[in-house]
Amino acid sequence: MSGPEQPKVIGEEWSDERVKSFLFLSPYDARINPDHHVLIKAYQAMRAEDFARFIGFFVEAGRDLNALDEQGETILDHVSRHKRMTDYADTLRAAGAKKAAEL
């Protein structure tokens, strides 16, 4: 079985099942927003193409793209600090994600 517990492998093809498995991750601390938690975990583990697929599943499941972390930031705030990750930021913006200052 593949899923979020497996290490990131560059160039590996991810099935829809494996991408969707990130929707079911739970934060270790109840104070952490579960939607923000799964977004961060997916961002950290997935290639841009897989992340784009994940965002589609995430939105389809009715999850919150603008969920805030403990510092009051969204996933787009986090991703936008990483200049080489514009594909991820573009995917988020296209799906309706905003920075915290825009909410």
UniProtKB/TrEMBL annotation:
The protein's matches in InterPro entries, at most eight in alphabetical order, are given as: PA4642-like (IPR047742)
- Tell me the superkingdom of the source: Bacteria
Know the name of this protein? Answer: Aminopeptidase
The beginning of the lineage is: Bacteria, Pseudomonadati, Pseudomonadota, Gammaproteobacteria, Pseudomonadales
